[in-house]
Amino acid sequence: MVSMKEIAQKCGVSVATVSKALNDKDDIAESTKEMIRKVADEMGFMANASARALKTNRTYNIGVLFTNDDAGLAHDYFSIILNSFKVAAEEEGYDITFVNHKIAGRESTYLKHCEYRNFDGVAIILADFKDPEIIELAESKLPAVCIDYEYYNCSSVVSDNTKGLLDIVRYAGSMGHRKIAYIHGELTDVTKNRLMGFYDGCREQGITVDPSYVLQSNYHDIEQCSECTRKLLQLEDRPTCIICPDDYSAMGCLRVLAQEGLSVPEDMSVIGYDGINMAMINGMTTYMQDSIGLGRIAFRKLADKIDHPEIPAEHSVVFGKFIVGRTVAKIGD
Amino acid sequence: MVSMKEIAQKCGVSVATVSKALNDKDDIAESTKEMIRKVADEMGFMANASARALKTNRTYNIGVLFTNDDAGLAHDYFSIILNSFKVAAEEEGYDITFVNHKIAGRESTYLKHCEYRNFDGVAIILADFKDPEIIELAESKLPAVCIDYEYYNCSSVVSDNTKGLLDIVRYAGSMGHRKIAYIHGELTDVTKNRLMGFYDGCREQGITVDPSYVLQSNYHDIEQCSECTRKLLQLEDRPTCIICPDDYSAMGCLRVLAQEGLSVPEDMSVIGYDGINMAMINGMTTYMQDSIGLGRIAFRKLADKIDHPEIPAEHSVVFGKFIVGRTVAKIGD
DNA sequence: TACAAAAAAGTAAACGTTTTCGTAAAAAGG
DNA sequence: CCTTTTTACGAAAACGTTTACTTTTTTGTA
Question: Which one of B97, B118, B257, B307 makes the best mutation probe of the A interface by having the most chain A beta carbons within 10 Å?
Answer without folding.
Answer: B97
